[in-house]
Design a protein that fits this description.
single chain, alpha/beta, TIM Barrel, 9 strands, 16% strand, globular
C-alpha cells in the first residue's frame, strides 16, 4: 500500500505551472503551495475545492519565503521567525480547506527547507514548533531517517516517510542536489520502474549504482515535470497492476 502525492497549486497570479485538475485525478494527496514559494489565495482556494471534490487529502507545502527562487535557494531564517511562518502558511491553507468542506491533513516542507531539515536540528525544530502552533495532530511528511521526522515523533506528531521516483539518491539515502548531473530522473520508464521498486521492496538504485533502502509510506510525483500527468497515470496504473494498493496515508 502506498500514497501518491504531488506538489500542486504552484502558480502565482496569471502564471501557472502544474496541471492541478488532471493530477488531482491520479494522486491521493495534494501538497498545496501556501504562498511562500508559489501559490496565491485564489489558487489555494481552487485547489482545495478540487481536492474536496475528488476526495484527495490536502497537505500544506510550507517553505522559506522565496517566491523569486521557487523556495529552492538556501536561506538562514531565525528559528522564531521560521516557526511563525510555518504556522502562518498552514493556517492560511486551512481557511480555504475548511471553506471547501475538507481540512489540512498533513504538512510537507518544500525545496531548500525540505533538504535543510534532513540534518539541521535547529531549523527542523522550528518547523515542528510551527506545526504544533497550527495543529498538534498533523502528520509531517519527510525523508526517511531525517532529523525533522525524529523530532516530529518526539513531539507526538505522526512521522510519515516519503520517497521520490524521479530524483536521484546518494548512497546515504539523501537526495542528490538539483545542480548536479543526474539529480533528476527524466526517463519515464525508469521513473515507473523505480516507483514499483520503492513501493514493493522499499529499495532503489542510488546515483552511484549502489542499492539502498528507502522505505516510504508516500511516493512523490513532481507536478512541474514535463509530461507530469501522463507519467503519474503510468505510475499509478503500473502500481495497481502489480498488486500495490494506492491509498492516502492521512
Amino acid at each position: 500500500m502506498i500514497d501518491l502525492n504531488a506538489d500542486l497549486g504552484e502558480g502565482f497570479g496569471r502564471w501557472h505551472l502544474t496541471d492541478d485538475e488532471q493530477l488531482m485525478s491520479v494522486v491521493t494527496s495534494a501538497n498545496v503551495a501556501c504562498g511562500f514559494h508559489a501559490g496565491d489565495p485564489v489558487t489555494m482556494r481552487r485547489v482545495c475545492e478540487l481536492a474536496a471534490e475528488r476526495g484527495v487529502r490536502v497537505g500544506a507545502q510550507v517553505s522559506y519565503r522565496d517566491l523569486a527562487g521557487f523556495g529552492r535557494r538556501a536561506m538562514d531564517v531565525p528559528s522564531a521567525e521560521l516557526a511563525a511562518e510555518v504556522a502562518y502558511q498552514i493556517g492560511a491553507l486551512e481557511v480555504f480547506a475548511r471553506a471547501a468542506g475538507t481540512r489540512v491533513s498533513y504538512v510537507k516542507p518544500h525545496g531548500a527547507l525540505y533538504n535543510r531539515i534532513v540534518h539541521d536540528r535547529e531549523q527542523a525544530a522550528a518547523v515542528i514548533e510551527g506545526v504544533l502552533l497550527a495543529d498538534a495532530s498533523l502528520p509531517v511528511l519527510g525523508l526517511p531517517g531525517s532529523v525533522v521526522l525524529e523530532l516530529a515523533a518526539k513531539a507526538g506528531l505522526p512521522a510519515v516517510t516519503e520517497a521520490f521516483a524521479d530524483r536521484a539518491y546518494t548512497d546515504e539515502g539523501t537526495l542528490v542536489p538539483r545542480g548536479r548531473d543526474g539529480a533528476v530522473v527524466t526517463d519515464p520508464e525508469a521513473v515507473v520502474e523505480r516507483s514499483l521498486s520503492l513501493a514493493r521492496s522499499g529499495s532503489v538504485d542510488a546515483l552511484s549504482g549502489a542499492r539502498i533502502e528507502v522505505r516510504a509510506r508516500s511516493l512523490c510525483l513532481h507536478g512541474d515535470t514535463p509530461g507530469a500527468v501522463d507519467l503519474a497515470r503510468r505510475v499509478r496504473e503500473r502500481l495497481l497492476e502489480s498488486g500495490v494498493r494506492v491509498e492516502a496515508f492521512a
